[in-house]
Here is the input.
Amino acid sequence: MKIAMVGSGYVGLVSGACFADFGHEVVCIDKDQSKIDRLHDGVMPIYEPGLAELVASNVAAGRLSFTTSLAEGIDGADAIFIAVGTPSRRGDGHADLSYVYGVAKEIGEHLANDAVVVTKSTVPVGTGDEVERILQDSGTSHKFSVVSNPEFLREGAAIGDFKRPDRIVIGAEDEFGRDIMREVYRPLFLNESPILFTGRRTSELIKYAANAFLATKITFINEMADLCEKVGANVQDVSRGIGMDNRIGSKFLHAGPGYGGSCFPKDTLALLKTAEDFDSPTRIVEAVVKANDSRKRAMGRKVIDALGGAEAARGKKVALLGLTFKPNTDDMRDSPAIAVAQTLTDAGVEVAAYDPEGMELAKPLMPEVTMVDEPYAAIAGADAIAIVTEWDVFRALDLKRIKDLAKSPVLVDLRNIYRPDDVRALGFEYSSIGRT
Here is the structure.
């Protein structure tokens, strides 16, 4: 089959490369000429393990190509995926659907054959209805079906998630759309990947509900971590104890500085706005959003407390290890590190930071932070070290070397990477999340 992927960002590029690896002919389309030029040169616009190799192999095989022309890219396509951004709209928190609707209008103007138009972007309930109306108003004479097919990719593990998914959700209103989507995903039938066919609006809501639920689990265990610190319990054991219950599950029960990234913050907010529009309040999600926003700056205050409090912290230096919202990505969107760094600099603390992949994107977001090229350079002369992102490179730091380099042996582990007894035995003042 021929597939057109409109949008060559994180979702579009990963999905397009994986579809090509299944044997489909895929054209990735993007208006950004510089991005397309870089892709032609084999330069990835994002960091995702294995993506550069996957793209290169499929380009070499002739199954994957790139263009800035939507008319050229969708010509002859059986399925046209819309995979453009839906950021939170400034001022009200609703998802900004202008890119989705703009692409839909352009597809309608250039559609030259029967095709299924698939919304891959994360969109609020009812977006597919509007996309369908836009296509109808375009006056196209060709048969089309509008389908919802949300993505469930984890940054840092996206290729594996796409090829071995927990589920494939397809929201379609007619058999034409369902038939084309079955053929699109037919290669995954060999893996017996479960496909759930639903109505279009149901599919759109599944994506938001899933992300809101996972965000709730993260926020819940973070609040339990705070309680553990007060009562002298261990949050890691609490996580294991409740996670062994199959009704709860162990995933997303790792206490830390709060959730960030491209999905959870904007999707929980968009779900709140959708619920408000339909006069169906989601009080639990409201509490999750508020608690998570507060937690990020609270983690900055935790570092300040480790320095001896606000007065003592002024003029001191902190080494921040990890800036991206999670490891194995360069994504800085809503990263807890942004709020941590801002809280520290607002308190007059000097901050030096290192991240394996995120520093270029972090620089404009943290203008007062000094970026260095390796972790020990950040630690040199520091009054405290704070681990914010659990990159593998931080899991086996030379603690003896750190103690020699740092001005004070103070370690704040916001990801619970190290064992408290081991670190304290070396003479560190050590604090972590939900452990005493």
